[in-house]
Specification:
Blueprint (H helix, E strand, L loop, with lengths): L1 H20 L16 E7 L3 E2 L8 E6 L3 E3 L2 E3 L4 E10 L8 E10 L5 E3 L1 E2 L9 E2 L4 E6 L12
Antiparallel strand pairs: 1-3, 1-11, 2-10, 3-6, 4-5, 6-7, 7-8, 9-11
Length: 150
């Protein structure tokens, strides 16, 4: 009985080994992997407010941890920048609001990685304190094409 089990086990192992050694053709991969985004933790290096900033102002942020982007190690403390894309002034008791757009992570050697603000990571507000934490994603999310019928 033991010999039969041993032979079956040996046969199973030989089959498994030959299956692993046999090259298997895989179907071609179409398209690119650019749809996969990397979420990156950052914090503001500037204080921003609807009272002091205007549309087009540049703000800066820094990575709070290390990340690999396109095979390149990007360390904590690496700087990035974005712009204030919209400002609504407050009137009376109503607070204003700022809309921010993250643009890029800027490597010390002059290379840049395009980024966008991670959806929902930084709610619209009238002011953001220095060191406010949020997320950017690389590559940035696709911008919807304008509707030609409008």
């Amino acid at each position: 009985m033991r010999r039969v089990r041993a032979r079956r086990l040996l046969a199973t192992l030989i089959c498994a080994a030959s299956a692993l050694a046999t090259p298997v053709s895989s179907p071609a991969v179409e398209g690119t992997f650019e749809d996969v985004s990397t979420k990156i933790a950052v914090k503001l290096d500037d204080r921003l407010s609807s009272q002091d900033n205007k549309k087009g102002d540049v703000f800066h942020f820094e990575l709070t941890g290390s990340v690999i982007l396109n095979g390149i190690a990007v360390g904590a403390g690496t700087l990035g920048h974005g712009v204030v894309s919209d400002v609504e002034s407050g009137t009376g008791p109503k607070h204003g609001s700022l809309t921010l757009e993250a643009r890029s992570i800027d490597l010390p050697d002059g290379r840049h990685f395009s980024v966008g603000l991670a959806p929902g990571s930084l709610p619209k507000n009238f002011a953001y304190a220095k060191d406010t934490a949020f997320f950017v994603i690389s590559p940035p999310p696709a911008t919807p094409e304008p509707d030609a019928t409008s």
